[in-house]
Amino acid sequence: MVTPLLIGIAFGAALERAGLGSARKLTGQFYLTDLTVFKVMFTAIVTAMLGLFWLARLGLVDLSGIYVPETALAAQIAGGVVFGAGFAIAGLCPGTSCVAAASGRGDGVATAAGMFAGMLAAGLAFPLLAPLYSAGARGAWTVPDLLHVRSGVVIFGVVLMALAGFVLAERLERRA
Amino acid sequence: MKYSDPYLAGVALGLVLLAAFVFAGRGLGASGAFASAASSAVHAVAPAYADGNAYFAGYLHEPGGAWRSWLVLEIAGVFIGGFVSAVLAGRWRRTIERGHGVSPGSRLAAAAGGGTLMGAGAMLARGCTSGQALTGGALLSVGAWAFIVSAFAAGYAVAPLRRRAWRES
User: Fold this and answer.
1) Per-residue pLDDT at A136
2) Residue B80 to residue A34: CA distance in whole angstroms
3) Which residue from B minimizes the CA distance to A80?
4) Which of A19, A71, A133, B133 is the most exposed place for a label (fewest CB within 10 A)?
5) Cα R_g (chain B), whole angstroms
6) Closest Cα in chain A to B64
7) Chain-chain contact of A113 with B112 (C-beta, under 8 angstroms)
8) How confident is the model at residue B168 (pLDDT cuts 50, 70, 90)?
């Protein structure tokens, strides 16, 4: 009971420190004027990915004990489109809406209330959505499985992609 | 106070995610807490219906019940951490963040409408920017990377239509 609370506190504080409780800052990502979202997100992905890889390599963590979210491509692509449109309109995502609300912003409260309503509506419509929801569901499925390469190769590729992205992000911000 | 350097904040966020993997065997999340809340609300009004709906029932039968589920506690922590961090930085302020010339009402309507779309999208996608993009991204999940690409593609397609909402002056 204490672990999720402590992890959540650190999660909320990290987002707030980065400025991700501000819809103006988040929407800067979509207008290419402020690429904080990309920088924070990809630095976090790379940090956790490399940390997990090396902890497992050193035998300190057993990867089989870590839950990998299920893949169901059709639902995740369709859900991603609806989610992304909502993200651009609200200017906040679910986690950052909580930080926005906690730092005094009414638009954060409204986004979180909308999230609740959307979940409620989609849940009520679940009997209709179930065929799309479960289409092609195949459990944990990773990019190394897909490409038939070792995870180290994919990890190296993600790091290179992130570094190239950071260079591009800095250029775009200087231009803006 | 100025916001932290994004790369430094990103490393901190990555270490939080790594701690969740190591100490809890799972990553971070946000939309799942809203799904738990919605499931509990439905169960309070119509218990038999909620138990018969496969989506809501999945959240109601978590260990400790929906209200004590891992993600609900984690999101309670996000509120505490966000609040304390904003107060300590002198950034806590009661406001409605919006572009120049945008009325508070239309900003709140956009926020609620966008939030509703995100709720439905996150339900289909089995997570949001936290549970899919960050967590699944770091675990190299195929579905998570497909979600990242489709969500940002849609965001970039819709954002130009909303440009006026964020005018500086």
Assistant:
1) 87
2) 26
3) B151
4) A133
5) 18
6) A1
7) yes
8) confident
The answer to whether the CB atoms of A41 and B129 lie below 8 A apart is yes
Distance CA A160, CA A148 (A): 19
Which member of A45, A73, A97 has the closest CB to residue B143?
A73
Distance, in Å, from the CA atom of A119 to the CA atom of B121, rounded to the nearest integer, reads 9
Q: At residue A25, what is the residue type? A: K
State the pLDDT confidence band at B62, using cuts at 50, 70 and 90. Answer: confident
Contact criterion met (CB below 8 Å) for A119 and B38: yes
Tens of pLDDT, residue by residue over B37-49, are: 999 999 999 999 9
- H, E, C per residue of chain B: CCCCCHHHHHHHHHHHHHHHHHHHCCCCCCHHHHHHHHHHHHHHHCHHHHHHCHHHHHHHCCCCCHHHCHHHHHHHHHHHHHHHHHHHCCCCCCECCCCCCCCHHHHHHHHHHHHHHHHHHHHHHCCCHHHHHHHHHHCCEHHHHHHHHHHHHHHHHHHHHHHHHHCCC
pLDDT in tens, B107-126: 999 999 999 999 999 999 99
User: How far apart (Å, rounded) are the C-alpha atoms in residues A56 and A90?
Assistant: 39
Q: Which amino acid, one-letter code, is at B125?
A: A
- Element (H or E) spanning A122, and its range? helix A106-124
Residue A130 CB neighbour total at 10 angstroms: 13
- Residues, chain A, total? 176
What does the pLDDT read at residue B22? Answer: 97
Q: B12 to chain A: which residues are within 8 Å by CB?
A: 10, 14, 17
Chain A residues with beta carbon closer than 8 angstroms to that of B131: 69
> How far does the CA of residue B154 sit from the closest CA of chain A (Å)?
5
Inter-chain touch A83–B153, beta carbons under 8 Å: no
Q: pTM for the whole thing?
A: 0.96
Determine phi and psi for A71, rounding to 5 degrees. Answer: -100, 130
Pick the closest to residue B139 from A151, A2, A1 (CA basis): A151
Are B25 and A47 within 8 A, CB to CB? no
Q: Is B51 on the interface with A (CB under 8 A)?
A: no
